[in-house]
Design goal:
This protein has about 280 residues and is an alpha+beta fold. Helices cover about 45% and strands about 15% of the residues. The protein has one domain (about 10-270): Lambda Exonuclease, Chain A (Alpha-Beta Complex). Strands 1, 2, 3, 4, 5, 6 and 7 form a seven-stranded mixed β-sheet that branches.
Length: about 280
């Protein structure tokens, strides 16, 4: 049985939530306001972001059985790249193929019975499964890759196009996986337990797939991770009030923000100095 879950009026006001929306609210209330409330037109995405999107598209299709040529063509139709961005993508393709081989071997070894790619999940305020776009969805997300093993366990893998970092020291990435755990249990009630991993496309190849240390059974997800997620959303939502302050920096999160040209504090501090 899941602990009693509390949802504050502030959390409901800004629903539905996703992990990226929670991150945005925590990193910069001003960015949250531009993106989710004002719907301000976003500026061009950073090249790394665009290339990462294309790489995700290739991975999605390769795992689904498409050839590299067909996967690449389809991904580039969805996410056109400049010549420089294409060069960046080519540098990632060997690592994409390496992952596909490792994942195929994993599926054979673990007797995978079902593969989930970009699976859309949603949960309600009462921690029940609902549609990704349903009217009652409170939190939602799409996992990059999931695999059900013969033992009834779910493996959740999230792709990252950046350089590999120590997962045990990266709280945000661990929290993202925990949020997927919380989504999975109501949507896949037959799951016995879950283990997560991050797949990095850059950095040392030995560090490209990093696993969460612990396996979490379904009851622990309900008792620990679901209440944590709801509490996290409540905390962030409570801080999203006028004047939605920005704290501009010449690094993250501002260097990844698509709303800098609309952000008065950033323009006052760094306008004309974005190079």
């Amino acid at each position: 049985m899941t602990q009693s879950l509390i949802v504050t009026p502030e959390a409901l006001k800004h629903a539905p939530w996703s992990f990226s929306k929670v991150e945005t609210g925590e990193a910069c209330p001003a960015q949250f306001k531009h993106k989710h409330l004002l719907r301000t037109q976003a500026g061009p995405a950073a090249p790394d972001t665009v290339v990462g999107t294309a790489a995700h598209g290739i991975l999605e299709r390769r795992v689904g059985g498409a050839s590299l040529v067909k996967a690449r063509k389809a991904a580039l139709m969805d996410t056109p790249l400049t010549s420089d961005e294409l060069d960046m993508l080519r540098a990632l393709e060997d690592r994409i193929e390496t992952f596909v081989r490792k994942f195929d071997a994993f599926c054979r070894r673990e007797g995978v019975t079902k593969i989930l790619v970009e699976e859309p999940w949603g949960i309600t305020t009462t921690y029940e499964a609902t549609g990704f776009f349903a009217k009652d969805v409170f939190f939602r997300g799409k996992i990059d890759l999931g695999a059900m093993t013969r033992s009834g366990d779910l493996v959740v893998i999230d792709h990252k196009s950046g350089v590999a970092k120590n997962l045990e020291r990266d709280q945000k990435k661990k929290e993202q996986l925990w949020s997927y755990y919380a989504l999975a249990i109501p949507n896949m009630p037959d799951v016995s337990g879950i283990r997560g991993a991050i797949h990095f496309l850059q950095g040392a190849e030995d560090d490209s797939i990093q696993w969460m240390k612990s396996y979490e059974d379904a009851s622990r997800v309900r008792e620990v991770h679901a209440p944590w997620l709801f509490s996290r959303i409540n905390t962030i939502a409570g801080k999203l009030v006028e004047p939605f302050l920005a704290r501009p920096k010449r690094r993250w999160p501002c260097d990844w923000c698509a709303y800098r040209t609309s952000c008065t504090p950033f323009q006052e501090a760094y306008g004309g100095q974005e190079g």
